Amino acid sequence: MKLHLAKQLNKVDFSVIPVYTEEKLSKLKAYGLASEIIDLTDSDFGRKLGELHMLYTPQLGRLLLLGLGNKKDLTPARLRTAIQTAILGTKKFKPSSLQIILWNHPGLQSQEFLELISFASMFGAYSFDYYRQEEKSNLANVFLVVSQISKTASAAVAAGSTIGQAANQARDLANHPANIATPAHLAAHAKSLAQKYNLRIRVLEERDMKKEGMGLLLGVSRGSDEPPKFIVVEHGPKSKNPIVLIGKGLTFDSGGISIKPSERMEEMKYDMCGGATVLGILQAAAMLKLKIPLVGLIPSSENLLSGRATKPGDVLTSLSGKTVEIINTDAEGRLILADAITYAKKHYQPKLIMDYATLTGAIIVALGDEFTGVFANLEKYHQSVFKASRATGEKLWLMPLPEEYQDQLKSNIADLKNTGEKGLGGAITASLFLSRFVEQTPWMHFDIAGTAWTMRARPHLPVGATGWGVYHAIHFLSSLK
Predict the structure, then answer these.
(1) Please, what are the domains in the chain?
(2) In 259-282, which positions are buried (b, 16+ CB within 10 angstroms) versus exposed (e)?
(3) Is the pTM of this model over 0.70?
(4) Which of 260, 351, 390, 458 is catalytic?
(5) Active site residue 322
(6) 334 catalytic residue (yes or no)
(7) pLDDT tens for residues 84-127?
(8) Catalytic entry in 80, 222, 334, 345
């Protein structure tokens, strides 16, 4: 799909006009609507956030009124929700083109909002049609109709479109079934991105991991016939102290010997959403030509059962040399992340580590499916991280890292064990486990288990992967000096 800025109305299949609660609809007379229809619409259309009302007009054809709620309450998150709702609301009509008419709303034509509207339009137009025979979505062009076209406005639309494209690529990667999206598939996708966007890449094979000493990643992958991959992607100028992005790339998680219930196990193809997010961030950074040294690390494997699979009670030796007693084989994400964290420290001396992982069900119990939990061992970046959250509508909640919970990770036979006590802050103890490998390196951990995908369709969000973190990370990284 392509986004365009325009000063005039276009001949399209759908026109969308955003409307605040306090707005009257008299301006619709300009599109040929009779006064009686406008008066009736004025009383019927409540203009609540995301509320849609369709009309047919002589000049525009199908016209979709989009409620924005009260003007004083509009935030980037609410605007993003509204735009995505409008785009998704037109899908059943299979339009090939639509326009969003903004020229009566100067406030929506700021650089920040034009970028957001562009991103939300790309995001809302997304559909995953690889395995369907039915007619596919064909929305090809979206026009943003504004009062004036400037270089700033054009740049904002281009940036929003680019980031939206990268987020949708991450969604594609995560939505593929696990028999397609294997660790090898993830590595091949990374190589394709590297070639297309001039990124530096290398992929460590199983023999390389053994040579490095990645005992935790190798331990997780033992039960699978699919060989693990450790994907290393570099963007921007080489630096002694880059920002390292780590994404959990577990392409299917059965739980291993500590097997999960069969109900909803098919969703465990999404356990690689962290890896997809990191590749999406790197793609967007490359397309936007961000001059920030970035390194993406994606430990990728499957967690399955077999006669070779790691068992509860086994002890594994990590890349750091620390030994880990395996209490629950379904607490595997922290294991592969731990080796990636040590690899980052050993080879890159990072300025900052940011990891993305569908790590714990406990974070969903704590925060639900609207907020990502963020854990950090320093306050330096808090303001920038939450400013980016507000600007992009990707919601965060700061979680604690209390030392009092470290005792839960004590093992009788190893340096530490891989789970804490059941029901006692599982998202926190998982983060504390990672902190034992991070040590003094500046670090932020994003537990995206509740936000990386959804099986609860909403007017602004379909079932499937969400690409959470791509938009937020680009905003955050762009703010760094």
Answers:
(1) 2-148 (3.40.220.10), 169-479 (3.40.630.10)
(2) eeeeeeeeebbbbbbbbbbbbbbb
(3) yes
(4) 260
(5) no
(6) yes
(7) 999 999 999 999 999 999 988 999 999 999 999 999 999 999 99
(8) 334
